[in-house]
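Justification of resources, computational component.

The compute hours requested in this renewal are based largely on the per-chain cost of generating structure records like the one below. Each record pairs the submitted sequence with a full structure-token output. That output is archived, and it is also reused by downstream analysis tasks.
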Amino acid sequence: MTLLDLSGQGLTSVPEVPHDVTRLDLYSNEISSVPASLWERTGLEVLNLAANRLSSLPPGISALTSVHTLDLAHNQFDSLPAELGELAGLTEYLYVSDNRLTEFPDAWCRLGKLRYLGCTDNRLTALPSDLSGFSSLRELRLYRNSLAELPESIGALGALRELHLRGNRLAALPDSIGELGELRQLDLRENALTTLPASLARLSKLDKLDLRWNKHFREPAWLRDFEEAGCMVLR
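The structure output for this chain reads:
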């Protein structure tokens, strides 16, 4: 494993990257564009382009078949290519937080080995209708977007352990939320929830449920029993 750490160097462009580099860290520079030649470094396993001035990517990123961690957070992307869904080696982390994203491409749901997806602090108003392709996802962070609802397919994320939805516009949750049998943490702060589906009471592994700052929330009768069974409920 060969690391090339160029973080915080004030770079305005991506320098030539040696062929043997497997971890490239360009975090916190002033880079505004990525050369298509970077996608020729097919041995890359970790690519960190976070905290730059990027607003677009050239086509061809799907050539990075060895990449397991990709960080594109803290940039200026209005959109990101559906082609990211072709990164079959993306098994660990995909960070796209703190951009200007308004759409979540359906094609990303093909990332069946991905464990962590961070898509916070964007402008998403909806998720794809079919999320079932994220079969290995353990942590999903979507806080501070503009989501008004979740698709029923959220219940297909059978490996999910943490779901973070703070600061959206959710007025209700789908009944399928009760199918997330591995879920440990559910953060619902700062939404518009008025109640919870009874199916949520089936989440026997849930140990933290955060309901704070839902102004019109009416507590369901079963919630006290759920709390007494061992789940920490924050109101």
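The longest helix spans residues 223-228. The mean pLDDT is 97.
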